[in-house]
Amino acid sequence: MDRKRKGNKVKSEEGAMRKVLFFIAIIFFSLSGIIWAWDDDVYVRGYWRSDGTYVRPHYRSHPDGDVFNNWSTKGNINPYTGKWGTKDPWKELNRRWYRDYNW
Questions:
Q1: Contact 77/94 with Cβ under 8 angstroms?
Q2: pLDDT at 91
Q3: Looking at the DSSP assignment, which residues form a beta bridge with residue 43?
Q4: Could you tell me how many helices (H) and strands (E) the chain has, helices first?
Q5: pTM score, two decimals?
Q6: Is the CB of residue 22 less than 8 Å from the CB of residue 45?
């Protein structure tokens, strides 16, 4: 009788563990899908500037406020043109800091 109870307890613990692992897997795959969707490139339609210059349609990296993952940043390569980035990310961060926190 004691063995039977112990066997049921083990089975119920295994079932609970499976449910927890399934729940964790669902959360992981849901979040990873959101992160991958967030990282997509953005298509920009062509437009006319106020000075009369036409800007051709192009792709750009997702606007997330991070200066280190932009294609124009030093060390990065634009996957569409193959050009290396030329902008110094630290200059951009300093500019933002002075703009936002230096009154």
A1: no
A2: 86
A3: 59
A4: 2, 4
A5: 0.45
A6: no
